What does this fold into?
Amino acid sequence: MRSRCECPVVAIRSMRRRRGVVLVAALVCLLIVTAMLGQMLLGVVRSGRQLHVERDRRQCELLLQAGLQRAEHQLTQKPDYAGETWKVAEQDLLSQGAGEVKIERMSDENDATVRLLIVAEYPAGTEHSVRRSRTIDLKIAATSTEE
It folds into this structure.
């Protein structure tokens, strides 16, 4: 009879062990899934940051191009144009920050060619701002005073 009594106890212990093993396996699976979701979330955050950096870089390049066109226009209007600092308001851009374009004339005013240094910064004055510069040579059209 003793063997009959021990059998249910052994079965109960075996069943408890199986439940414990299943619980541990479920917790390990949950841990793995949580780690995978965490890595996916980090990837999304990195991608968002990269998109912001690329957006700011592109905006800065567009500001640089606009500064070049502005300088060319100013030189056609005023051959003695010395340059300027052009501040573009946040509302006129992507509402992510103001932009700044510095145009500096680097050559002598008597030359037929003008060298300009154009520096664009977006968003201006922040620690993560993007800065691009370009030096160009422009030929000044001679103004004639013929009658």
In short: The longest strand covers residues 113-122. Residues 2-139 form one domain. The two ends are 134 Å apart (CA to CA). The chain is about 50% helix and 20% strand.
